[in-house]
Here is the input.
Amino acid sequence: DAGITQSPRHKVTETGTPVTLRCHQTENHRYMYWYRQDPGHGLRLIHYSYGVKDTDKGEVSDGYSVSRSKTEDFLLTLESATSSQTSVYFCAISGIEGTLNYGYTFGSGTRLTVV
Amino acid sequence: AQKVTQAQTEISVVEKEDVTLDCVYETRDTTYYLFWYKQPPSGELVFLIRRNSFDEQNEISGRYSWNFQKSTSSFNFTITASQVVDSAVYFCALSGYNTDKLIFGTGTRLQVFP
Here is the structure.
């Protein structure tokens, strides 16, 4: 399996505080993604990255920002956490050696609770 | 626009029953790819299958089989002789031409009772 880790695995934070989730990969995949999973909504794309310093918005990007300063790290920041951002967040990677359409490898997820 | 619809929110069966999970997709691309992922109660997302739009052959892997029909824009997943370990949420997903982004359906929760 590709090496992809998310940290932290669980986090409880207060409304209004900034939160950063980290995704780290060791397999040199080009593309990285952040999704959130909510009941009834499945997996929805927040932001994604085509490479270092090359990011773009997904369908639910409001209230989130990302950064990718190194190939292996993709950070997701909740600028001011709200209760509606309570969710399970998944990082995914794809595109090893420039290939496309072979699907994702997912991280284990981060369960975030905003109180 | 691309879209994936999994109309079945939840399915319950008794062990050894066969069960089919439906997936209907929308895309304007002529080249596209379809996927199924499994999410067991432990929460991780596990890749099951990838299919490209030019290959309509059905695929079988043990008790799992997939039926891809372009005429009805469907990519259905059948589990034969279901087992308790098949209990999970199953996601169907779509990616289009020249992009790796996946569009997911809302998932179907399968519960298999002993």
